[in-house]
Amino acid sequence: MLVFGLVGGIAAAAVAPNVAGPREDGTALTPVGQRVTPAGHQTGLGDLPLNSALSPDGATLLVTNNGQGTQSLQVVDVAAGTVVQTLPYTALESLYMGLAWSADGTKAFASAAANSKIRTYSSADGVLTEGESLPLPTTAPDGAPLNLFPAGLALTPDGTRLVVADQLRHPWSTWPPAP
Question: What domains does the chain contain, in order, with CATH numbers?
Answer without folding.
Answer: 1-42 (no CATH), 43-174 (2.130.10.10)
